Amino acid sequence: AQAITGQPATIRARSRDIAKNSPHFKRWLDLRAINIVGEGFSLKSTPHDGMPGSADYRLDAMAARFIEWHFWRWSTWRDPETNRTWCDATGRKTLAEMDALNVKTEGRDGEYIMLPQSAENPYGISFRIVRPDALDETYFREGSATENPIYCGVEIERRTGATVAYYFHTTDPQSGYKGFRGPLVRIAASGVIHGFTPEDEDQTRGIPRGHASLVKLKMLEEYDKAELTAARDEACSVRTYYSSAEDPEGIADLTSPENSDVANALVQEKEPGQSEVLPIGWDSKVNTPQHPNREVTPFKDSMLKDVASGW
User: Fold this and answer.
1) Structure pTM?
2) Average pLDDT in the 172-201 region?
3) pLDDT category of residue 270 using cuts at 50, 70 and 90
4) Partner of 138 for a Cys bridge, out of 39, 62, 99, 180, CB 3.0 to 4.6 A?
5) What is the pLDDT of residue 1?
């Protein structure tokens, strides 16, 4: 817990910024959802009749179909009157869509949180997805003989280290807990689904899955900007006119009325294959763009291999 004290919010903010601006990071999050969740998980029910080991012990196929159908109805079906699903407390998502969102959130923020809630549907339950930043990572309390310690908003049992409760931000001003960003509400661990992959035994919060690649991705983003700026700069600087070495004093005065047509011709846009005749004493130099650099592709490939290793 001490290793990530004060860091979750910073790392999460950087990860979210990269997720919004990096096509590679976004694609990685999408691939996680596609390959882990896909079209969603189904329930395989195997209720049996009789006693195990007895001759009449067999699968109750009718009961299995009944249970599986009701699971599908709760997790996927939309009420035709309200167009709301029953598994999601907001009524907007199916269970597969909730799972996909949790997978993306866990990759981007390092953790996902769901709260089971009683609901007014035939099954009496739904789940609410909560953003990880609602769990106050700044809330700490040292343990004592009578109180459990709290690390990053998570209360743990002082003797075993088991999770006891979570402290979430709330709009309820009557809450008895005051966090850094406002009132907190204490929810017992039995009422919270908190998913993350721990990297340390004492870790209470998750950190973004792609944290090891954030620096490389940011460097790659800045490199792309620099390369694009250089390419645009060279594309805008196409031709330069100057005095020829043979006759440095013989440059015609383009500001005079008799040379106005020549001056206008030199500043007009050029067409492909167009030739031009310069006034006496003038010479020109064509700028050949060096960007995008021919080494861009192998360099970026090498950087992306490092990024992929971090993922």
Assistant:
1) 0.75
2) 83
3) low
4) 180
5) 44
pLDDT above 70: residue 176: no
Percent of the chain surpassing pLDDT 70 = 76
Give the Cα separation of 282 and 237 in Å (integer). Answer: 18
Outline where DSSP puts E strands in 67-203.
112-118, 125-130, 150-151, 154-156, 163-169, 177-179, 182-188, 193-195
> Helix 214-236 to helix 23-32 angle, to the nearest 10 degrees?
140
Q: Of 240, 220, 236, which Cα lies nearest the Cα of 297? A: 220
Strand partners, 115: 128
Helix (H, G, I), strand (E, B) or coil at 135: strand
Check if the beta carbon of residue 229 is closer than 8 Å to that of residue 223. no
1-5, 21-25, 138-142, 254-258: least confident range? 1-5
Write phi, then psi, for 170 (nearest 5 degrees).
-140, 160
Length of the chain: 311
The token pair at 286 is 């064509």
Q: How many whole angstroms separate alpha carbon 110 and alpha carbon 131?
A: 11
H helices of 22-80, where? 23-32, 61-75
Cβ 156 vs Cβ 164: under 8 Å: yes
Alpha carbon distance, N-terminus to C-terminus of the chain: 23
Q: pLDDT: is 279 or 136 the higher one?
A: 136
In this structure, are residues 87 and 95 in contact, taking their beta carbons and an 8 Å threshold? Answer: yes
